[in-house]
Amino acid sequence: MKLQLSEEDAAFREEMRTFFTTQIPQDIRDTVTARRELSKDQIVRSMQAMNAAGIAVPNWPVEWGGKDWTPLQRHIWHEEMQLAGVMPPLAFNASMVGPVIAAFGSQELKERFLPKTANLDIWWSQGFSEPDAGSDLASLRTTAVREGDEYVVNGQKTWTTLGQYGDWIFTLVRTDPTVKKQAGISFLLIDMTSPGLTVRPIELIDGGHEVNEVFFDNVRVPVENLVGEENKGWDYAKFLLGNERVGVAPVGSTKRTLAQAKEYAKTAGAGGTSLLDDPLLAAQIAELENDLLALELTALRVVANSADGKPHPASSVLKLQGTVLQQAVTELWVDIAGPNALATGAGEGSDVPELARTATPNYLNYRKASIYGGSNEVQRQIIAGTILGLRG
Length: 392
Ligand SMILES: Cc1cc2nc3c(=O)[nH]c(=O)nc-3n(C[C@H](O)[C@H](O)[C@H](O)COP(=O)(O)OP(=O)(O)OC[C@H]3O[C@@H](n4cnc5c(N)ncnc54)[C@H](O)[C@@H]3O)c2cc1C
Hints:
The protein is of the alpha+beta class. It has helices spanning 7-23, 26-33, 40-52, 71-83, 91-104, 107-118, 233-246, 251-265, 279-305, 315-337, 354-357, 359-365, 376-387; strands spanning 124-127, 143-147, 150-157, 168-174, 185-191, 197-202, 211-222, 226-227. The protein has a four-stranded mixed beta sheet with strand order 1-4-5-8. It has a four-stranded antiparallel beta sheet with strand order 2-3-7-6, with no helix packed on it. The chain starts with 6 loop residues before the first helix and ends in a 5-residue tail after the last helix.
């Protein structure tokens, strides 16, 4: 494998770097760099700026706004946006429902939804998980019973990320309860303003409101909102989940956060001394830097070997190690911030630096990373079975 970028790819990297550091509004990049929560408006503006430049959905078919980029170019695009403190395009739109509609939806669904999905004119939520149906997703119980030209949907979804902003929700629903569980599932698009649909917040350990429960009480959905064929939803869900895992190794943003921690540590000791003089901390940082470099090289190897746009099985390794390192760096931040990490409630006028104040909420928030996108225990099972050939 060649590690040196070709001249063409190096120029592409420069082009992306220039775009992300000059064309995405500064307030958005400042919010990401300070590790504060982005508002809905900021997320929308950020994706719309990318879409205006034609680079919000490079993974889609070209006729719907995609780019004929190589996997390596897509990797560079993703890494440069993270290094610049830019939030990647909303995953529910760009890497989940968009590719599914483009691959399996009718022409009518494509025309109706894809342009608005790419431009975040529609904010999508993901309605897959249910109580007792997370890792064992095929056990889901939400039903859709056909009555004439409509499905009548009843049931509950949970952990719906940012569902409070959602305009539409893509769901997995049971349309045939009499067959093997994977065979009776359909992929249905539901307008979140439909009568009978309720979104209820779940309170999180970091005090934030990021996930929700969604209830369906006799929600009527036109049959034309079915994606693909009835009872084939499991195939589309597997396609979607493979894509979901590819984007969850945020090497670029973890690198940025680690570099910030190192910089902060330089003057964070007693009387402004450097914490980097502590050999234990210095070794911890060096180890994390090495692990990140190894992960980056692994990501590049996966990129170099992924054929015809299909997710590589090693995407499970990226998900696993990417989130392990993401969590390790949020923990390092709490260590470096020391007692200042307790000042989470301090406001704007506080003497405590903002990055120290956000250390604890971030640490707590990122416990989620090893659960969503398929829990890390389940990724280990996949790695053992499909990559190492260790079938039990
Ligand atoms: C912050 C957050 C946001 C989320 N956002 C969304 C969203 O927007 N939309 C959505 O549909 N879902 C979302 N999810 C749900 C997420 O996909 C599930 O939480 C995840 O798949 C795990 O399922 P579960 O919570 O039911 O846990 P369970 O599957 O009950 O797992 C419990 C424990 O058992 C372990 N376990 C389960 N099966 C195995 C196995 N076969 N081998 C070894 N260990 C196993 C798990 O690893 C875990 O430790 C989100 C979750 C979180 C935490």
